[in-house]
Amino acid sequence: MNRFRIFGAVMLSMIFWAFSFIWFKIANESFPPITIVFIRLVLAVIILTTYLTIKGKFQKIKKEDRKLFLLLAVFEPFFYFLGESNGLTYVSSTTGSVIISTIPVIAAIAAWLLFGEKLRALNYAGIFLSFAGIIVFVLGPGGKLTFNFIGLLFLGLAVISAVGYNLTLSRLVGSYSPVFIVHVQNVIGAVLFLPVFLFNDLSSFISSTHTLKSYIPIIELSVFASCGAFILFAFSVRKMGISKANAFTNFIPIFTAIFSLLIMGDKLTIQNFAGMAIVITGLFLSQSDRRRKDLDDAMALTGKTA
After folding, report:
1. Do residues 118 and 109 lie in contact, with contact meaning Cβ atoms separated by under 8 Å?
2. Taking all residues of the chain, what is their mean pLDDT, rounded to a whole number?
3. Is residue 188 part of a domain?
4. Residue 302 pLDDT > 80
5. What's the number of domains the chain is made of?
6. pLDDT at 142
7. N or C: which end of the chain has fewer CB within 10 A?
8. Please, which pLDDT band fits residue 112 given cuts at 50, 70 and 90?
9. Secondary structure of residue 61 in the 3-state scheme
């Protein structure tokens, strides 16, 4: 029964994160990206503050770590959500999830370039396969790009931001709990997004039609993706270990594709499915027993605040 609970928790967290791409697309029908992100962060801060207060899990931030937490929040959620939310306004939820799923691959390359961490031949093969899969996924007949290039650029910003987040996070995970780290970065992120929201979206937000239906997907993003999924994943990491739990993240694009097909009516071709399969295979190979514990700890959180 305990084993069933652990696997149930990790799979449920993957399902919540897969749904996050769909919930955003639905929310985007009523609100612009910045509004969605800002409200989502504020709700997530309220939820996690309540959780940490009840559990008594607040921690004191060391003076030398304050700059790291600020840098962490600048990378994610600020730049990450700017890239992801704007990117998802141009591409389908499935395409977005496939591009975002390459974060571990890019982070592995960054760790190799910056930290000199050598990868195994199998990992290099996985990196090559992942990029090949992306090309297969986004190219149509005749080698033409079938998805909006601006959207891909925004999602590229999200991926690069997540890598910077990963490298910064590797210096904090040994001193602070995962939930507390996400809480702090969400607080700082909400503060960073506040002037952007006030300058860009406030007037349109005031004039928008405010109904419970329009807010439901944002609430779902906050409760299930930004909070529930993370807590479930943290529970899974403690029970089964980081490497095993992190391997399950490769199922996110699959779940997103299935849910997008059923809920959003997204159409996928045989080529799309082939590209997705190649990406996921490459992800498994690229993450095969390749790095030290700190970076694996950091990778467990990378891109998960979405």
Report:
1. no
2. 83
3. yes
4. no
5. 1
6. 60
7. N
8. confident
9. coil
In three-state secondary structure terms, 174 is: coil
Letter for the amino acid at 153?
A: L
How far apart are alpha carbons 266 and 92 in whole angstroms? Answer: 7
- Spatial distance between the Cα atoms of 108 and 11, rounded to a whole number of angstroms: 24
CA distance 155 to 66: 28
On whether residue 304 sits in a domain, the answer given is no
139 bridge partner residues: 145
Determine the average pLDDT of the residues in 105-123.
73
Q: Which domain holds residue 100?
A: 2-299
Alpha-carbon distance 256 to 41, whole Å?
A: 22
Tokens in use for 172?
A: 């904090």
Is the residue at 305 inside a domain?
no
pLDDT of amino acid 107: 72
pLDDT at 1: 56
Which residue in 97, 90, 98, 94 sits closest to 33, CA to CA? 90
- Residues composing the chain: 306
Rounded to 5°, the CA angle 129-255-283 comes to 20
DSSP structure string for 216-267: HHHHHIIIIIIIIHHHHHHHHHHHH-HHHHHHGGGGHHHHHHHHIIIII---
How far apart CA 67 and CA 5 sit, in angstroms, is 38
The amino acid sitting at 7 is: F
